[in-house]
Automatic annotation (TrEMBL), chain A:
Database matches in PANTHER family: ABC TRANSPORTER ATP-BINDING PROTEIN, TAURINE IMPORT ATP-BINDING PROTEIN-RELATED
Record has Transferase as a keyword: no
CDD domains the record matches: ABC_NrtD_SsuB_transporters (cd03293)
Domain of life according to the entry: Bacteria
One GO MF term attached to the UniProt entry: ATP binding
Protein name according to UniProt: ABC transporter ATP-binding protein
Organism, scientific name: Mesorhizobium temperatum
Length: 252, 266
């Protein structure tokens, strides 16, 4: 079976600033992979390259074994800030992707409406985003993302703006949802615990210019319930060492 | 959010909002009235507010006949100006170089003194509705254009990026994101422009018209009737306030989410 997504030596500069210095990574079908890296490293830039918001400077990207350019919009993208439209009600926001795909308003709403319960949004269909809590906004943004039925989800720090308690709740919820649906996910985060808890594999990026410092496989059994098991804590400590210590040996 | 309020606290809240304004205007009018009475200044120089009001009521038919053309000139001119500003703003949003080509011309148009331009426009286009529409459009068009163009540019970049990741065309992004994002700017521009519009219409009439508040003021002044001039001024002020209030109401109806957003941010 070919890999779902494969990046080889992808680079990107802004003017004379190197942001991505040859990123190589891959995601298998049904796999949950995280990209972990310091703020400003260039994580969101990777997603902008994948979703067509930017042109890269070298390297290549394959999707299902063929160049990404040949694939037909394979990604459902959740931007770093929820990007809910304040002028659309929650159901209109979540149906946005389907409408853009050409589905009629009515059909699009008919498709998202049954999912509101599972996403903890029942009863809020006709509220505006301003009337939602932070956690609910993120769940609405996530619903808008998954309902598009794309081959792969790109989630950019979905819980970064939440308070610690809400974030933990959302991580458990996402873990439970992933166990049920087995989406192919590439998640950006700078929360080590979140990456360890949710992922099958983690790519640890250096600061700018970003390169892959390490690839870590998380062997913890699923479904995972405990965020702080001893095994998880050991992996966390290991990753933190990689992130916080300078890496002279790996810089060329 | 939509709890039923009983009437009393609502009226109290309304009064808390408009009370200070009523108080300051009331004080001013009262001081004026007292001065006009005590100083025994001639009413052909400075009539007391009570006299202005009495004359306004007496002359209500003439005032009404002259207000109607002013309202139609204001609304017709403003409607034309809005339509052209909207079309141009869309073109500018799609073809950015247009902005640099057109803005200098419009900025210069804003520096033209109305006193000098109004009689010329009347000279060219006669006493009918056309010169009034043109002058109202001249004063309101550029503020509306700037408001719209700025409004489009205020669109959240994440929302645009999201839409293009979904495969939305440029036109689709404009309709789904840029146009709704411009609404707050549009209404801010609307509130300012509508007050300019009334002034523009009166100026145009002052320069030459068969009927209208502008020409009424000019005639009253020439007949040494400052009380009637002020009565017409009162009407034009009330007209402006009414139009302003209408834009506020339209904004509330058009953007029900706006107050929720404001409440969340505060
Ligand atoms: N359009 C651009 N022009 C110039 N520089 C840019 C542009 N976009 C991003 N950058 C720079 O690229 C770097 C990486 O940005 P990016 O948003 O990818 O970081 P990030 O890893 O997602 O950070 P964070 O965790 O804070 O979201 C930053 O230093 C940023 O200033
Ligand atoms: Mg980012």
């Amino acid at each position: 079976m070919s890999r779902r997504l494969e990046l080889r030596q992808v680079s990107k500069r802004f003017g004379d600033i190197d942001v991505l210095a040859g990123i190589t990574l891959h995601v298998e079908p049904g796999e949950f992979v995280s990209i972990l890296g310091p703020s400003g490293a260039g994580k969101s830039t990777i997603f902008r390259l994948l979703t067509g918001g930017l042109e890269g400077h070298g390297g290549c990207v394959d999707f299902d074994g063929r160049p990404l350019a040949d694939a037909c919009r394979p990604f459902a993208f959740m931007p770093q800030h929820d990007a809910l439209m304040p002028w659309r009600t929650v159901i209109e926001n979540t149906a946005l992707g389907l409408e853009v795909q050409g589905m009629s308003r009515k059909a699009a709403r008919g498709k998202v409406a049954p999912l509101f319960g599972e996403f903890g949004l029942a009863g809020f269909e006709h509220k505006y985003p301003a009337q939602l809590s932070g956690g609910m906004r993120q769940r609405a943004a996530l619903l808008r993302t998954v309902v598009q039925d794309r081959a792969m989800l790109l989630l950019d720090e979905p819980f970064g703006a939440l308070d610690a308690l809400t974030r933990t709740g959302m991580q458990r919820w996402l873990q439970m949802m992933w166990d049920r649906h087995r989406w192919t996910v590439l998640l950006i985060t700078h929360d080590v615990r979140e990456a360890v808890f949710l992922s099958d594999r983690i790519y640890v990026l250096s600061g700018r210019p970003a390169r892959v410092l390490r690839e870590i496989i998380i062997p913890l059994p699923r479904p995972r319930k405990d965020l702080a098991s001893p095994e998880a804590s050991a992996i966390e400590a290991d990753i933190l060492d990689t992130l916080l210590e300078p890496q002279p040996a790996q810089r060329t | 959010m939509s709890q039923p309020f009983s009437a009393a606290p609502r009226i109290a809240a309304l009064f808390a909002k408009v009370g200070p304004a009523l108080l300051s205007v009331g004080t001013l009018v009262l001081a004026w009235e007292l001065y006009a009475r005590i100083s025994s200044i001639s009413p052909t120089t400075l009539p007391a507010p009570s006299r202005v009001l009495a004359q306004a009521i007496q002359q209500r038919q003439a005032l009404f006949d002259n207000t109607v053309p002013t309202i139609s000139a204001t609304l017709a001119g403003f409607a034309c100006s809005l339509a052209v500003a909207f079309i141009l703003s869309v073109l500018i949003d799609f073809f950015k170089p247009l902005r640099r080509a057109l803005f200098p011309v419009f900025i210069i148009s804003q520096t033209l003194p109305l006193v000098a331009i109004a009689p010329l426009v009347v000279l060219w286009f006669g006493f009918g509705l056309t010169p009034k529409i043109m002058l109202v459009a001249l004063v309101t068009f550029f503020p509306m254009l700037v408001a719209l163009v700025q409004g489009y540019d205020s669109t959240d970049r994440d929302i645009s990026a999201l839409l293009s990741s979904m495969g939305a065309s440029r036109m689709r992004i404009f309709l789904l994101a840029r146009l709704p994002s411009s609404l707050p700017y549009f209404f801010a521009g609307l509130r300012i422009s509508i007050t300019y519009a009334v002034v523009g219409a009166i100026f145009a009439e002052y320069a030459g018209a068969a009927k209208g508040l502008g020409i009424y003021m000019l005639n009253a002044k020439n007949n040494f009737r400052p009380d009637l001039v002020l009565a017409a001024v009162l009407i034009s002020a009330l007209l402006t306030l009414a139009l302003f209030a209408a834009t506020v109401l339209i904004q509330r109806a058009a953007m029900p989410w706006e107050r929720l957003e404001a409440a969340r941010k505060s």
